[in-house]
Write a structure and sequence with these properties.
Blueprint lengths: L3 H17 L4 E17 L2 E19 L2 E7 L4 H17 L32 H16 L4 E20 L4 E17 L6 E9 L8 H14 L9 E7 L1 H14 L2 H5 L20 E3 L22 E5 L2 E2 L6 H7 L7 E2 L7 E2 L4 E3 L6 H5 L4 E9 L9 E12 L2 E14 H7 L1 E2 L9 E2 L3 E9 L2
Helix pairs in contact: 3-4
Length: about 450
């Protein structure tokens, strides 16, 4: 894996070669990574994996025609062949009036903002093993846990560099760490499994392994002996483990590509109230140590924090350059990409701001409802907003979380769900997309 300076140089050299070979414009992306993963099961070392890889991707333009190629062979001979192949392919590609590099005047210039994403740590396999072992030991020690699917700990480092023929050449590095445990409670046909995990950019920020294990064990035991629930319209409360998924559906509906294709249930919602007043959904790509923090996007545009939903109102679309041109707008710094193919669009560190009520206060007046801790299936229609997911969790009775329930379905329409959404005060930044506990009134719940 190259260091940042060498990665920047390699991508810039590839751009120069592409221009020399006849490309009118080009960009190149380098992605290198190395990771170590240790797996434990039933107190014994199950696996130690070390993976390293690097790829470079080249996108070239000949007029309004473009082609993308990539290679994991970074030798001079391979890259020379890569350039020739890319230019030849572009000359035969169909024309696309919207394709092209990001506007030159919008590229990141000057010093790149720091996001503190690389701690320089390099924990040994032995350290990772001890962390995984501690997580599994803690989970197995929970009364009622009968078996283990294992525990693991990981450490990784990545280097990203992007160069364009408009003069951009920047790179950055990130580290990543994780710890998880998954265990089984009960016996025979009554067994239930659950898990817990945590991820961080800095090793020092990784949650204590014992706490992760205890949480996994407690969750599995609480799921034992699930009951049934009658069908009907009920309040549904989403645990933070699953509430963030609602924000994922929001983002999918407001990308420039979805709007340009007219395949979004929010097509007519720009600058209107999509959520209740007081609701804020913010994307913050510059959060220090954020899991998706980055100083520039996949096209070299600077990133910046933005309220996607402000006081309940949808403020704008998320666009790369191609979708922005198609919509007659400007790109928003949300382009994302791999080494192969053109950029797409995505949020970074996305979160729903906390409300004022504690989770207990949020459910206190619910006579009968559902507290969802797991969602199953992909029953969401991005065109209509229709939502239907398999779920499990707990019954809410008289304002208290009661017995577990499984094999239910929760359904509604996302436009109605967004308007009814009420967040609790328990927001924590633990994932790339974060949300507190969420309550939604009047969803259809179908029991087993």
């Amino acid at each position: 894996m190259l260091n940042i300076a060498d990665a920047e140089s390699r991508t810039a050299d590839l751009i120069a070669a592409a221009r020399k070979a006849g490309a009118d414009a080009a960009d190149a992306l380098y992605a290198g990574s190395g990771s170590t993963q240790v797996s434990i099961r039933l107190g014994a070392l199950e696996d130690v994996e070390r993976s390293e890889g690097e790829e470079i991707g080249l996108r070239v333009f000949v007029g309004s025609r473009s082609a993308s190629v990539s290679s994991s062979d970074l030798s001079a001979e391979a890259l020379s062949a890569l350039v020739e192949r890319a230019v030849a392919m572009a000359r035969e590609a169909p024309e696309d009036q919207w394709a092209g590099l990001a506007p030159e005047d919008r590229l990141l210039r000057g010093d790149a903002p720091g996001v503190d994403g690389d701690d320089g740590a390099d924990p040994s396999p032995a350290e990772l093993r001890e962390r995984a072992l501690a997580a599994e030991d803690a989970a197995r020690a929970v009364s009622g846990v009968t078996n283990s699917e294992g525990a693991g700990a990981t450490a990784s480092r990545s280097v990203i560099a992007l160069a364009t023929s408009t003069g951009f050449a920047r790179g950055y590095a990130t580290t990543g760490y994780g710890c998880s445990a998954s265990v089984i409670a009960g016996e025979g046909g009554a067994m239930q499994r659950d898990y817990a995990y945590h991820s961080s950019r800095h090793f020092a920020d990784l949650e204590d392994a014992t706490a992760i294990g205890i949480r996994a064990g407690d969750r599995a035991v609480k799921r034992l002996n699930p009951g049934k629930l009658s069908s009907g319209a009920l309040p549904v409360v989403y645990d933070p483990r699953v509430s963030s998924g609602l924000l994922g559906h929001l983002i999918g509906a407001i990308t420039g590509a979805a709007i340009a294709r007219k395949t979004s249930f929010l097509l007519d919602a720009l600058e209107t109230e999509v959520f209740a007043k007081g609701i804020t959904v913010r994307d913050d790509p510059l959060r220090p140590r954020g899991l998706r923090s980055k100083p520039f996007d996949g096209e070299g545009l600077p990133t910046a924090a933005r309220d996607i939903i402000a006081d309940g109102v949808l403020t704008g679309w998320l666009m790369d350059s191609a979708s922005a041109r198609q919509l007659g707008l400007q790109p928003t710094g949300h382009a994302t990409r791999g080494v192969g193919g053109p950029p797409g669009t995505s949020a970074t560190n996305l979160y729903l701001s906390a409300g004022t009520l504690s989770p207990g206060e949020l459910i206190a007046d619910i006579k009968l409802g559902v507290y969802v801790t797991e969602l199953i299936g992909q029953g969401v229609n991005g065109v209509t907003g229709d939502y239907s997911r398999g779920a499990s969790g707990f019954v809410i009775r008289d304002g208290q979380i009661a017995e577990p329930v499984a094999e239910i379905t929760v359904a509604g329409n996302l436009r109605d769900m967004f308007r009814q959404l009420v967040p609790a005060s328990d927001l924590e930044f633990r994932r790339a997309i974060d949300a507190p506990t969420i309550r939604i009134e009047g969803m259809m719940v179908a029991g087993a």
